[in-house]
Amino acid sequence: MATALRDISHKIAGAPGAPAIRFGDVFDPNSGRVQARVALGTATDLEHAVAAAQNAQPAWAATNPQRRARVMFRFKELIERHMEELAILLSSEHGKVIADAKGDIQRGLEVIEFACGVPHVLKGEYTQGAGPGIDVYSMRQPLGIVAGITPFNFPAMIPMWMFGIAIAVGNAFILKPSERDPSVPVRLAELMLEAGAPEGILQVVHGDKEMVDAILDHPEIRAVSFVGSSDIAHYVYQRGAAAGKRVQAMGGAKNHGIVMPDADLDQVVSDIAGAAFGSAGERCMALPVVVPVGEKTAIALREKLIPAIGALRVGVSTDPDAHYGPVVTAAHKSKIESYIQMGVDEGAELVIDGRGFRLQGHEEGFFVGPTLFDRVTPAMRTYQEEIFGPVLQMVRADSFEDALRLPGEHPYGNGVAIFTRNGHAAREFAARVNVGMVGINVPIPVPVAYHTFGGWKRSAFGDTNQHGMEGVKFFTKVKTVTQRWPDGGGTGDSAFIIPTMG
Ligand code: NAD
After folding, report:
1. Which atom, in ligand 1's list, is nearest to the CA of 332?
2. Is 322's pLDDT higher than 70?
3. Mean pLDDT of 304-333
4. Phi and psi dihedrals of 403, rounded to 5?
5. Which one of 1, 246, 339, 430 has the fewest beta carbons within 10 angstroms of its own beta carbon?
6. What is the pTM of this model?
7. What domains, with CATH codes, occur in the chain?
């Protein structure tokens, strides 16, 4: 007799919400089996979450920021205490190896640490004596109810990028996580309750397009933060903005690593192997394109990359020796494999073919072997589009200027890296490259939590980055007060011209 699947429910006002009518499958990518089913919510489920948020948010906003920070401190401690459990859960639905799952949680936790300093960041600005007897001050106030819609590839970090700051500054936050690995976001909401946040301050509603549209159209939701693929990001940006919301929508990526002739090639190969194949390439800051500058660099790099890629160990996500695990679903595996075929058809040289990879004992798992293409050209579709798998493409450049132009002209502009020992070349590159985040001998230049994260071009719609002070700005609105306390000796004259301080 088949055993019933585990149900993954919403977290609305601290409870699972009404029974679902529709469900989505959640896979175990290691075995290929369905391991649970997640509720796919409706506009009615969202209404319940909004009502709970409306109940809770005014008192939360009125709580002094130091008390809200204390909740963040307790949340941080709880995450640290539950790190092992969360990492295993995350890895079991996503497929990334456990050490990488801990990195996912840790990078989110760093935003929570930033949020612990919320009393400081909300202090506002003050000018004494801006005019005769006039002082001006400004304050940042929460928006009210805000929402986040997140992708499958960082089910802990990206929700924490958003709700860590949104809640600390006094909003109520409704999270719609990816339906492919929804369990960790629910645990995060449970731990936030345990940390002392009132019910209704962090809620989780699961779902697909139906729920996303309900969020985008809901008049009480003031802002939407989105991370996912570019077409959906663009859609979310347009529909949310049309409904009068503040929207930031981060999209896909195709990050380049430029290798200058003077680079330390052994270091570069080890950096690129990790950045291209870690998490099976399912990172928006992965490095799937490597650009050696000059023929000699290309030949030497290729010679070193082939054995390094050959030595990569693909295994189940619980294997402590595996460099990377399976990709998230069978559909994603076949999409990656069809891009590999497209690369062959387009005339790129397939140096290492990861298709048909089968792990003994896990033949139905969603594994894709590491793949290397050489002689990829900018006109190829496989170069222009995001593959989001363990596929590294080598595009040869003749000169620094050619290399600089490649990421600059690419439709995506999330991250880029240059490997060199030449400070002048690195400085020129950082100043001129048309991309949002730059690494200099750093293959995955994800900024720390107190700086901000965001790409350019098709990698981000809207003009505010994630976390750091940009996150605070996104989740608050500024109020500016101009005050005068007359001493009773005024003339009573009206001013009919615009007042100036001159
Ligand atoms: P996705 O776009 O498929 O899904 C993201 C979210 O949108 C999910 O919550 C999903 O339920 C929802 N969604 C999916 N289809 C929708 C539709 N038709 N209408 C409305 N909502 C819809 O992305 P994914 O596959 O989960 O994540 C991988 C993508 O995210 C990659 O493109 C990756 O580069 C990108 N990403 C970007 C960043 C960044 O900061 N720029 C970070 C991580 C991931």
Report:
1. 25
2. yes
3. 97
4. -65, -40
5. 1
6. 0.97
7. 6-251+459-480 (3.40.605.10), 256-440 (3.40.309.10)
Q: Is the pLDDT confidence value at 205 over 80? A: yes
pLDDT higher than threshold 70 for residue 2: no
Ligand 1 pocket (Cβ < 6 Å) reads 149-154, 176, 178-179, 208-209, 212, 227-229, 232, 250-253, 284, 386, 388, 414, 455, 459
CA 222, distance to chain mean position in Å, is: 20
Is 116 labeled as catalytic in the residue annotation?
Answer: no
pLDDT of residue 325: 98
Q: What is the pLDDT of residue 489?
A: 65
Predicted local distance difference test score (pLDDT) of residue 381: 98
Which amino acid residue places its CA nearest to atom 20 of ligand 1?
A: 209
Which whole-number Å values give the CA distances from 439 to 163, 400, 420, 457, 470, in the listed order?
27, 16, 11, 18, 20
Nearest CA to ligand 1 atom 17: 209
CA 459 to ligand 1: nearest atom: 41
**Nearest CA owner, ligand 1 atom 19:** 209
449, pLDDT greater than 60: yes
Residue that the structure tokens 């980055």 belong to: 465
- CB crowding 114-153: b at 16 or more within 10 Å, else e: bbbebeebbeeeeeeeeeeeeebeeebebbbbbbbbbbbb
